[in-house]
Every structure is written in C-alpha cells, then in structure tokens.
Amino acid sequence: MHTNYYFLRQLAPALTERLQGYRVAACFSQEKDELVVGLTNGTAEFWLKAQLGANFPALALPETFQRARANSVDLFSELLGQQVETVVPWPQDRVVQVNFRSGARLVFKLYGPRPNAIFRPRPEAPAQLFQQRLLADADLRPQPNAAPPAPGKLPPPLADLPARYLREHGYDPAPPETKTRLVNQVLAQLEKPAHYYLIQLDGRTRLSLLPLGEIIEPLPGDDPIRALRRFVPMALGRRALENETKQLRQLLERRADEASTAAAHARQRLHALAHEAGYRHTADLIMANLHDIPAGATQVEVVDFYTNQPRLIKLKRTEKPQLTAENLYRKGKNQQIEERQLTERIARREAEALTALERLEELDTQPNLAELRGLRIWRKQHGLDPTPAAAKAATELPFKVFEDRGFTILVGRNAANNDLLTQKYAHKDDLWLHAKDVTGSHVVIRHRAGQPVPEPVVEHAAQLAGWYSRRQHDTLCPVTVTPKKFVRKPKGALPGQVVVERERVVLVKPGNPFDGGDAL
C-alpha cells in the first residue's frame, strides 16, 4: 500500500511539515528509472529518491545519499532553488504533488505499470517528463472527488490489501448492513492507522495499514516517513529473493505437472498395448494356418489357439501371407521395444515428478533457502539455474533453438542448413539425431562438459527430429541417436546427406514438446 491513496494522504502532510521552506539543491539521475531530489534548509538536508520503474514504483526517503562522480545526469534544471510550500495527494489517486512557492509543481505518478515524474516550472508552462515516452502524462490532471460508494460497496481506491482483509473477515457472505459496518471500520483504520505493518504475503514483502499475512514488523502509525524509510530498502533487498523463489516454484510445479502427465499418457498407451492382440500373435496365427489360406485372399477366419475363439484376420490381396507375417513379426519386435521404452519412461517420469515435488517441499521447509545466497547455491546444486543462453544463442545461430533442463537443442531448417549445423556448428561430443530412413531436419543436443544428457532431453530432441521430418504424422517414429563423431558426409553427397557409422534407435511420438513458445 506504499503507493495507495490512503497511505499517500498521510505521507503528504508529514512531508509538508518536514519540508516546508526547504529549497531544492540537486535534481539528477544516476540509475535507470531513478530520480533523486536533494533539498536543504541551510542547516539540514532531505533526500527524496523516486523509483520510477514499472516493477516497483516507490518514493524512497534515504536519510543520506552520496551522488556518484560518474554516470550521473542533471534533470529539471528549473527546479533548482525552488522553495517547498506544500505536499498534497491527488484525490482518490496514486499521485503525490510537491507545490513550490513560485507556482512550480513536481508530480510523482506512482501507477504500477507506468510511473513517472512530471515537472512544470509554472502552472501554464509545458510539462517536462522524466519518462519521456509516456507523452499522455503531459496532460495529467487531478480528477474531482468521486461520489461516495453505495452502502456496503468497496471504495475504488481501497486497493487489494484492504479488500482482502475485508473478505477474510466475512465481507462477501455478510448482509448489506454488516458489509457497511465492516467497510466503515476498515476506512476508519485506514484514515488513522494505529500501526503500519511490514508484512509477507503471497511471497512478497509489502507495507500495509492493516494486519494481514505474516507480520514482519509493526511500526508506529503516526510516522509515515519512518515507515517508508524502513520498508523501501527492505522490499528492494528482498525482491530478488522473492522473484527467484517464485520463478523456481513455477519451474518445479511445471516440471512435476509435465512429468506426471507424460507418465499417465505412457501408462495409457502401455495398457492399450497389453489389451490388444499383438502383431506377433497375429503372425503366429497366419503361419499356423498358411496351408488353408487361398491365393489372393483378403481375409481369413481361423481359430485363435490362445483363446480357442474364432478370429478374422485381414490380408492384402497383392501380398503373400508369408510376407504379411514377416511384416507383422517386425512390427511385433518394434511393439516389444515400445513396451520396454514405455515402462522405462513411466518409471523415469514418475521419478522426475517425485523429485520436483520434493524440491518444492524443500523450498518451504529449508531455512537456508530464505536467504538469497543459500537459494542460489541450492538452485545450482540441483541444476535449476536459469538459462539465459537460449536468447543469446537465438541471436547468434541460424537454427531453431530450444532449451531443456539447461541443454541447448538445435534444429536445422532445410538441407543446406542441416549441413551447416552438422558440419560446421556441431562438436564431436554433441548428440546428433535424425528421423530414421526419411528426409528431415538434423537435430543436435549441445554437449556440456561433465554432464551426460538426461533421457528426457534426448526424448524431447527425438520428438523434434520426428516432428521436423516426413514422419511428422506417424503414430511412432524411429529416431537415430549418436554422438556427432560417428556422423560423416561422403564426398559428393547432396546437401543434408550423411552416413551414420554407429547408432542407437529410440521410438517416440513426433511432436514439439516446446509448443508453449520456447523455440527461439
């Protein structure tokens, strides 16, 4: 609530009492989105530092401030020497205005997404903007007082904390007369708070005029300047911890959800395979009844010696039954491979989901993670570091770029681009993937020293290899996986053509597991 009207209406008179008669001695900026105003009465100084970034707009009131010798620029030159008369809040708004005896005005607009400072040396003079891209702020004017809300309704500037406080005290289901009483009680507390509260709520450090969430520290309600001086440095110091904790939580929740969903899908597929007649089973029946199948038949009915029930088997008129059986035996072998891979995938993905949930629990229970240094050490130990390298790689590399668990996956765009990827960019220890026996993109997983590529990363890269190939719409796609050192290009080969000297094959469902927009 440090930018809310109900706090600003208490801060403004406190600033007027403190600054009346002070003159502006300095006005400059030395960091992005920061405006510093230094005032003095000849014997004492007062510093006002406006944080005008969209992430955390605030008026900071440091007791002392040292201007840097470099990277500092003077602003609003006509503000120098101006003498403060009053500081006032705009009615029902997140704006505070400093009035000077000459008629000059300095306005601090503390809107969350678009904060700004606006200076007018005279009431009729053109506005000078700190954030010059926000041109509409040149015409910003205070709005007249709004009509009072209907009985029991929340006033527009109440903000989220008082509204939440009301709802936690039974506002929503209450009858109209009780709602009116609750609102009036809260408004009375906001207009003359007994305390200011530094609180932790939903992973954020906030200043509140009401007891809410986890109270870190209560402060006297008659000194808003002291409250602001205590709150802003604390909030800025804790912001990095709060943001990184939130990002880690979202990452782990996403991993747990993705792994659980993948395990469930694999289990469904395995169940379907277990409850349908296998290819090998059908091939056995064809071979056992080969002498009874007439030439050119399109189907044959046999007794299934596994179930002792009649079974109708479809055949191809132009294909000999022996060849049909051979094809089915080959498919049966692939089916066995698929079942084994599905079983392994279920175990692996369930373990990943459990690990992610354990990490989430550690975030809430380990005391050392309540400190930024401890959190970053823990994050690095568990391979949860952010990977800004993806954006950098996208600007440097002419391929499709994906990031997965800290590994970079590169995908060729066409035949010539495949050659460039495999022959020029890929390292001998990188993993190289390609959809087997069809044309498609070369896929490379960048090697990381001392870190074997996790199977989920191989699986995702194989899905990409299938997706960017002629097998894109197949149910299952065999994909070659091999270190790049076993891939060579024969002399005279066409663009994109290579020979693989050693390989293993994985079966995957073609797709883009990064459909949410992680491709760069």
From TrEMBL:
Domain NFACT RNA-binding: 403-492
GO biological process: rescue of stalled ribosome
One Gene Ontology CC term in the entry: RQC complex
Superkingdom of origin: Bacteria
Keywords, in A-Z order: Coiled coil
InterPro entries from the UniProt entry: NFACT_RNA-bd, RQC_Subunit_NEMF
Statement: the UniProt record of this protein carries the keyword Coiled coil: yes
Coiled coil start-end: 238-269
Gene Ontology MF term list: ribosomal large subunit binding; tRNA binding
Name listed for the protein in its UniProt record: NFACT RNA-binding domain-containing protein
